[in-house]
Amino acid sequence: MTLDGRVIVHRLDSEVVVTVADAVEVQRVTAELADGRPVAVVVDMRSMGYAGREARDVFGDDLGGVEAATALLVSPAVSAGLASLFSKFQTPDRPVQMFTDEGEAMQWARAQLAG
Predict the structure, then answer these.
(1) Percent residues over pLDDT 90 in the chain
(2) Pairing of strands 39-44, 50-51
(3) How many domains would you assign to the chain?
């Protein structure tokens, strides 16, 4: 996890399986890095193995408004399927957008904080 200005970048390692405990820890560190100020989060999940429904539900929390926007960086091969599943099962309380290009994801994330 890195902080680039007010954008937090999460990079999920190859084939990692995200558990509820992992998701809770990521949210804790995100809140700590945000230090009470709005941040945008870019999640590079191009190599992720799996995240169960309960773990995904944890990520639905915007941390009391601290996580102002979330960009999901996915591989082109899975982007349509993920987008479909995400929109079907999640109703986030912040803007969430999927990207296949990291530069575009970062640009969008920064724009969400500026606007």
Answers:
(1) 45
(2) unpaired
(3) 1
Which token pair is 8? 């937090």
Q: Quote the domain boundaries for residue 83.
A: 2-114
Residue 8's CATH number: 3.30.750.24
Strands 7-11 and 2-4: antiparallel
Query: In sequence order, which ranges of 16-75 are alpha helices (DSSP H)?
Result: 20-34, 53-59
Q: Helix, strand, or coil here: 45? A: coil
List the structure tokens of 45: 């999940």
**Cα 108 to the chain's mean position, in Å?**
13
Q: Angle at Cα 34 formed by Cα 32 and Cα 39, nearest 5°?
A: 150
pTM of the model: 0.85
CA distance 73 to 62: 18
**83-107 confidence digits (pLDDT tens):** 556 556 666 788 989 899 999 999 9
